[in-house]
Design goal:
This protein is an all-alpha fold. It has a single domain (about 5-175), classed as Up-down Bundle (AhpD-like), CATH 1.20.1290.10. The protein contains 10 helices and no strands. Helix 1 runs antiparallel to helix 2 (about 15-25), helix 3 (about 30-45) runs parallel beside helix 8 (about 115-130) and helix 3 runs parallel beside helix 10. It is an enzyme of class 1 (oxidoreductase). Its EC number is 1.11.1.28. InterPro entries: AhpD (IPR004674), AhpD-like (IPR029032), AhpD_core (IPR004675), CMD-like (IPR003779). Pfam families: CMD (PF02627). This is Alkyl hydroperoxide reductase AhpD.
Length: about 180
């Protein structure tokens, strides 16, 4: 399974997703570690078997072992952080914003790859998970690291397309089951 397999599994009504998925593969604004790391992190964040298998097959040999581990770690840590920080942001009682999170997040400080690339993976996962507070925090870190608006936007495009492909394939699988 690969991106081509995922594209061929999409129904005709999702033609735009097929085209966008193909465009992501040819993305040149990001280097391969950034591009494929964002894809893999998003696939793991979404967690559907078909997407994880397809994207993992696509990234195999294109990501180092460290970058693969970092992409998975970004999905894992953001799965926790996005729920926590989205929740404290949505609560009207501001007291929760002043309390220490008391959650382990060591991987953020030592991701095994460049801090900027890990932040980019985390940005994409935060988009999938819909945490505005995390999106703002990652965008600020990426700007400090010298990433352009176009590079940051590319991570958001990756997140949106991978998410949409997963949702369509999952829905089609439910209908045919």
């Amino acid at each position: 399974m690969s991106i081509e397999t995922l594209k061929s599994a999409l129904p005709d009504y999702a033609k735009d997703l097929k085209l966008n998925l193909g465009s992501l593969s040819n993305e040149t604004i990001l280097d391969d570690e950034q591009k494929y790391g964002c894809m893999l992190a998003c696939a793991y964040a979404i967690g559907t078997g078909e997407i994880v298998k397809g994207i993992a097959a696509e990234t195999d040999g294109k990501l180092s072992e460290e970058a693969t581990k970092a992409a998975k770690a970004a999905a894992a840590i953001m799965g926790m952080n996005n729920v926590y920080y989205r929740s404290i942001h949505l609560l009207s009682n501001e007291t929760y914003r002043t309390l220490p999170a008391r959650l382990r997040m060591n991987v953020i400080g030592a991701p095994g790859i460049s801090k900027a690339n890990f932040e980019l993976f985390s940005m994409a996962v935060s988009a999938v998970n819909g945490c505005g507070m995390c999106l703002d925090a990652h965008e600020a870190e990426l700007r400090k690291a010298g990433m352009t608006s176009e590079q940051i936007q590319a991570s958001l495009r990756i997140a949106s397309v991978i998410n949409a492909v997963a949702r369509v394939l999952e829905a089609e699988q439910a209908v045919s089951a």
